[in-house]
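Please decode residue identities from the backbone states below.
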């Protein structure tokens, strides 16, 4: 059986039609057993720190905490989510690390007041935190001067990236830290989502050089995230053992230089949750435009933005009676939004690329797969569409993890004057 079936009847042992009868569409569903499986693959690392921006649903976040993962937060809202999921904001190692390239004013106050460990991505952050909270330990995120990713929009290193302290500015940041008594206890380096092992070896060398420049105060190094996830036939999973071996060799080299242990962290987001997620939608119209057949569904880029953002491919399947016996056809899948770009089957240049699916009828269910990462977290209310409900499957039982937003809830913050 293909890893990417064109016909799907259940998710995590629960019939899809049962899920829709109970919760409606569009609907996000997460199979928690997949997240646990992915987390187990990273057991060799000292710390797995979940990048919750990939999927910040509180049930998912709490599961990862219960399974021993720490977390990363990039905003005051994500710090609050971490608290609600049961994470303390202080500890050794830090249960929660705040990572950013700037401090919003209110967030800086929160970091100072709550004693949250900060991973600083710009020289000004070093100065600002040093002035407000001298004497703390901090982590520096370094831009090594190069990057790599599955899209130019997910490349987080090099001269075109806003992320991290430029490697040539490290020395001046160390001087700023020293003036304020900040101890640089950690280094973080992430060059983009989808980096391969060849690029990883370059990152490891750059991390070694940066750590040697900082010196013996370094107690931890973070490999960042970006581990690739296969979305299509022919794509291979990342060699997790090879990934660990390269970083472990770097860690051991630094331990030999410094004469003390160095903690090795990894910071996955997509790797942990992407394969767990499914976006179920209903086909509401089918139309022909010359040679093209369109399946138009009740989910759009307000629910899943990855295709319109960077041409991301997602496998799809049909849940319908006798779907496996039907003939196949090339189709384009689009949503309800008043935008030509509201197409789930497109490439990075915005060119439509049909996918093969069984012939369908209006009212049948289409499943967009591997949507657990950067799906619901990137959702919006564009076109005044409410956010979808989110359900988790735990041990074969569905649980509502976020109820469907109502129109009144969507409008509640607005004031008519």
């Amino acid at each position: 059986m293909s890893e990417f079936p064109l016909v799907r009847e259940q998710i995590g042992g629960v019939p899809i039609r049962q899920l829709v009868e109970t919760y409606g569409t569009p609907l996000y569903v997460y199979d928690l057993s997949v997240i646990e499986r992915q987390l187990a693959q990273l057991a060799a690392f000292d710390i797995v720190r979940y990048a919750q921006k990939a999927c910040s649903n509180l049930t998912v976040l709490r599961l990862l905490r219960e399974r021993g993962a720490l977390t990363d937060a990039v905003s005051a809202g994500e710090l609050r989510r971490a608290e609600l999921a049961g994470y303390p904001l202080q500890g050794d190692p830090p249960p929660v690390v705040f990572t950013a390239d700037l401090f919003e004013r209110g967030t800086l106050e929160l970091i100072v007041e709550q004693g949250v460990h900060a991973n600083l991505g710009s020289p000004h952050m070093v100065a600002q935190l040093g002035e407000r909270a001298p004497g703390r330990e901090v982590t520096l995120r370094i831009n090594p001067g190069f990057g790599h990713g599955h899209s130019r929009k997910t490349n987080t290193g090099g001269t075109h990236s806003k992320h991290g302290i430029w490697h040539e500015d490290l020395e001046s940041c160390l001087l700023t830290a020293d003036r304020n008594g900040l101890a640089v206890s950690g280094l973080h380096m992430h060059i983009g989502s989808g980096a391969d092992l060849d690029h990883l070896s370059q990152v490891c060398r750059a991390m070694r050089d940066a750590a040697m420049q900082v010196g013996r105060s370094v107690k931890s190094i973070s490999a960042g995230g970006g581990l690739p996830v296969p979305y299509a036939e022919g794509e291979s999973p990342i060699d997790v053992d090879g990934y660990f071996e390269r970083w472990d060799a770097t860690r051991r080299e630094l331990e030999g230089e410094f004469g003390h242990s160095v903690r090795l962290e990894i910071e996955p987001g997509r790797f942990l949750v992407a394969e767990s997620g499914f976006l179920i939608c209903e086909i509401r119209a089918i139309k022909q435009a010359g040679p093209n057949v369109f399946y138009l569904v009740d989910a759009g880029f307000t629910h899943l933005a990855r295709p319109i953002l960077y041409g991301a491919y997602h496998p799809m399947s049909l849940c319908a009676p006798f779907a496996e016996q039907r003939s196949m056809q090339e189709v384009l899948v689009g949503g309800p939004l008043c935008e030509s770009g509201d197409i789930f089957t497109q490439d990075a240049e915005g060119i439509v690329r049909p996918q093969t699916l069984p012939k369908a009828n209006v009212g049948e269910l289409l499943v967009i797969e591997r949507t657990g990462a950067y799906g619901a977290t990137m959702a919006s209310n564009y076109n005044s569409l409410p956010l979808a409900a989110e359900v988790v499957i735990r041990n074969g039982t569905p649980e509502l993890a976020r109820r469907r937003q109502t129109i009144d809830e969507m409008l509640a913050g607005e004031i008519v004057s």
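Observation: The first helix runs from residue 16 to 23.
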